[in-house]
């Protein structure tokens, strides 16, 4: 689990992700922290399947999937499955997750 609410010590996830199919992947710079670790981890998931979020079609599919997750998230609040506090915390995490392709 990557916590987005505080800084954790490095886990080695900030190592560069090699290019996939000729596309440059995320290369960490001076920035560090949970959000950047999330970028590396999500891109590594795609890389493990021979894909990359630097590809426009893959990034669009990723965005569509996160739209569906957002609908689920909103429904959970409407149905009383999530408290306002939990909803707000998850909304922040989903916002960071949805921005992953922008950081590659």
Describe the structure.
The chain has three helices and no strands. It has a domain at 53-103. The radius of gyration is 15 Å and the shape is globular. The two termini are 21 Å apart. With 104 residues, it is mainly alpha-helical.
Helix content class:
40-55%
- The SS-based structural class is mainly alpha
Count of helical stretches? 3
Biggest beta sheet summary: none
The outline comes out as globular
Average pLDDT level: 80
Low-confidence stretches: 6-17, 19-23
How many β-strand stretches? 0
H/E element sequence: HHH
Quote the distance from N terminus to C terminus: 21 Å
Strand content: under 5%
Radius of gyration: 15 Å
Element layout with pairings:
Layout: H1 34-47, H2 56-78, H3 84-98
Helix pairs in contact: 2-3
The gist of it:
With 104 residues, the chain is an all-alpha fold. The chain has helices at 34-47, 56-78, 84-98.
Keywords:
single chain, 104 residues, mainly alpha, 50% helix
């Amino acid at each position: 689990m990557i916590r987005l609410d505080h800084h954790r010590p490095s886990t080695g996830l900030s190592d560069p992700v090699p290019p996939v199919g000729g596309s440059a992947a995320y290369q960490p710079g001076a920035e560090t922290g949970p959000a950047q670790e999330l970028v590396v981890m999500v891109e590594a998931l795609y890389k493990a399947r021979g894909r990359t979020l630097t590809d426009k079609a893959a990034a669009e599919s990723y965005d569509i999937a996160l739209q569906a997750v957002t609908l689920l998230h909103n429904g959970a609040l409407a149905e009383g499955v999530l408290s306002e506090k939990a909803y707000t915390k998850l909304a922040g995490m989903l916002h960071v997750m949805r921005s992953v392709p922008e950081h590659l």
